[in-house]
Amino acid sequence: MIKELERLGAEHRLRAIPAEREGALLDLCSNDYLGLSTLAPQYMAEFRERFGDAPMSASASRLLASRQRHFNAYEEYLASLYGKEAILFNSGYHANTGIMSALGALPGTVIIADKLIHASAIDGMRLAGCEWRRFRHNDPAHLRATIRKALEGRDVKRVVVAVESVYSMDGDRAPLREIVDIKRVFPETILFVDEAHGFGVLGERGLGAAEEEGLIPEIDIIMATLGKAAASSGAFAICDTTMKSWLINASRSLIFSTALPPANVCWSHLMTEKITEACSLRENLRSVCADFAKRMKDATGQPPVSNGHIQPLLTGDAARALSLSASLREAGYDVLAIRRPTVPPGGERLRFSLNAMLRPGQLDSLFETLISSQP
Fold it and tell me: Of 89, 167, 181, 270, whose CB neighbour count within 10 A is largest?
């Protein structure tokens, strides 16, 4: 173990839980895309008035808990937004591992996932025990060929296609319309879309890329997390009645975990309501993102991988990523270096997580630092 830790250190990949950030660092690490965590104090009076009776513990798993009222109310609200059933999970990790393993437990299932799908979905596929494959990132033609090959001469009852709407490291988006077109060609397909980084930010009501592209009815399972733009914790899945029943019966992460505190669920309920009304915050975030992408290109000469709320600066080297992160910290910005295994070898980077609270002038020193740090 010690040797392995020493090896990670030598490769500039040794991780540690960071200390509480002190001072006036501008946070460009967290996924508080709308700034609702910053705005939270102004919502506390409404929260206490509406949900003051919500207990701080469910005291049991969802299938055993006697306290269900607040869970049911929030799931019904989510169902009214999406026009489908909703089910809550304790986190995005719990949701993805639980959903993938539950689908894989059905005989005749093959899972085909985007090459850059989140680690939680990969862990779920491993737990599933079924056959699973990967297709080249955001490559619909390769997805189509991979599905066709999986179905050839075999008794495959369902093909689960798993993608993210917005990818967490590059900030690029899945070609959902093309993937839905492929789903129509192969009726065995179940389409799973992880909206962890789309929920709150995209769509007229912030319901994600599926809403923005008018595809909610076409997607079999939509998963969204509540610890990012929603300034809370937990996750939910949107699906039809049959799928919800199967997840309740087969998702081990749901069945065998103590449920979220009802008070937490109520806060998520309130934050989701605020998200649906946050059109001006989403508009400001779009403006922040467009300006950031332009200035990043001017400062580094790198064309932007994304124009959205997640924008990377590729270094291809862990040591350089750490050095740039340290320089930006001295300039007043909290930007973490992303290294293997979070990204593939050569994909080391800084990941800038933008939010709607950023104002003109706040990033001037950041770009000055990047310009002075160019080799």
Answer: 89
